[in-house]
Amino acid sequence: MIDNFALAISHGLMMLAIWALLKRPDLDREPSPRDRPARTKPGREDRPGA
Predict the structure, then answer these.
(1) Is the pTM higher than 0.70?
(2) CA distance 47 to 43
(3) Strands (E), 1-50
(4) Do 21 and 27 form a contact (C-beta atoms < 8 A)?
């Protein structure tokens, strides 16, 4: 017989994960093809061999 507590824990954790993913602000944005990606370090791609 399946333990009801185990079912509640597993389903509760899945609901928590879904709720955390739905709260993300980048879920509402769809970048345009013309958008430039954010630079991680200034000048990094300007140096050859970096």
Answers:
(1) no
(2) 7
(3) none
(4) yes
